[in-house]
Design a protein that fits this description.
The chain is an alpha+beta fold. Helix content is about 55%, strand content about 15%. It comes from Modestobacter muralis.
């Protein structure tokens, strides 16, 4: 299991660490857990979260 920092998750999605923290705060981001003072994310869980978002967008698209 590889753990990612907030900064690494942000880099993966080309956004800022503040955005990742906001996603976590409002409950729409990948699940993370505190280890001491840091929030760390399981890389596999981050990938699953992203796939669920991408799959959800595909399901809601309307083709004309």
């Amino acid at each position: 299991m590889r753990l990612l920092t907030t900064e690494e998750v942000a880099a993966r999605f080309r956004t800022s660490p503040a955005t990742v923290r906001y996603w976590r705060h409002i409950g729409i981001g990948p699940d993370g857990g505190r280890v001491g003072r840091r929030v760390l994310y399981d890389e596999q869980e981050v990938d699953r979260w992203w796939r669920s978002k991408v799959d959800g967008q595909k399901a809601t698209r309307v083709h004309s």
